[in-house]
Amino acid sequence: MKFVLGVDAGGTSTRALAVAADGTVLGAGRAGGANPNSHPPAEAVANLAAAIRAATEVPGRASACVVGMAGTAKLTDPAVAALFERTWRDLGLDRVVVLTDAEVAFAAATDAPDGTVLIAGTGSIAGRIRKRRMVATEGGYGWLLGDEGSGFWLGREAVRATLAALGRDGDLGPLATAVLAEAGVDATDRKYAWRRLITVANAEPPVRLARFAPLVAVDDPAATDIVERAADLLVATALATREPDEDTPVVLVGSVLGDGTRVGERVRAKLAGLEVRTSSDGVLGAAWLAAVEAFGEAAARRPG
């Protein structure tokens, strides 16, 4: 039986699909995270192999495998690259293409070969896509150097707005109230609450500020200001990757840009006039790209 493998290897989980030439899903597998930047490489490949084995409990041999992976930069380490190559051999995979998670997310949302992918989850980055490969990026520098408009950025701004409200000794709005509740800080004594919130925020790894990001959904002028600024920053990041008068699709990826989110709604409004799509399942993009690799674009069928 002819089939291909698509794999979405993220930091939290890894999913694999075995898909027949006609797009029929033959098997699926799930395992822990396989991002070699956030997990020890040996653990990452073990999770990757577990997901693939669970998906390939079907007769035959995969004609091609596309892996969309967060943390592909780690494969520039020869020792890590050798570990992954050994894993492909052990799994009997002869034709493996490793792409970034951004590339498979773009392919999951559109058949277009060119366009822009804008990702905003805990971090943020935009990429220029040409012939289904990312050829240029803007952002993606991490919490210390950038990640504007991301979940980290939103959470940090929510905490900063709360500290400002406490320092002015004015009325605490819904955003500040929600932030203090999330941080477990009693606001009865404003001076104590100000000091305590600073202590709580600095006691955790900086990226943990992203846990405050969902709170900007409250109806509050301070939250609206943060949302508007985030949308402006994300749109600027996306447009920085595009050529003048480019009319290719923009694919939005990540929890911050999901349908129904305040930031996502404002980003879509600011990109009015362009074709904007939402990508929610990178493993489907990986499987389709594997079908293109194995059977050619004219014959490739999307999983369904």
Structure description:
It holds the Pfam family BcrAD_BadFG. Residues 5-290 form the ATPase BadF/BadG/BcrA/BcrD type domain. This is BadF/BadG/BcrA/BcrD ATPase family protein. With 304 residues, this protein is α/β, with parallel strands linked by helices. Helices cover 40% and strands 20% of the residues. The chain has helices at 41-55, 78-90, 101-109, 151-168, 174-183, 190-203, 221-239, 262-270, 282-295, and strands at 3-9, 13-20, 25-32, 65-69, 96-100, 115-120, 124-130, 133-139, 250-253, 276-279. The strands form two sheets. It has a five-stranded mixed beta sheet with strand order 3-2-1-4-5. Helix 1 runs parallel beside helix 2 and helix 7 packs across helix 8 (262-270). The two termini are 17 Å apart.
Q: Short description, anyone?
A:
The chain contains nine helices and ten strands.
Can you lay out the helices and strands and say which pair or pack?
Elements: E1 3-9, E2 13-20, E3 25-32, H1 41-55, E4 65-69, H2 78-90, E5 96-100, H3 101-109, E6 115-120, E7 124-130, E8 133-139, H4 151-168, H5 174-183, H6 190-203, H7 221-239, E9 250-253, H8 262-270, E10 276-279, H9 282-295
Parallel strand pairs: 1-4, 4-5, 6-9, 9-10
Antiparallel strand pairs: 1-2, 2-3, 6-7, 7-8
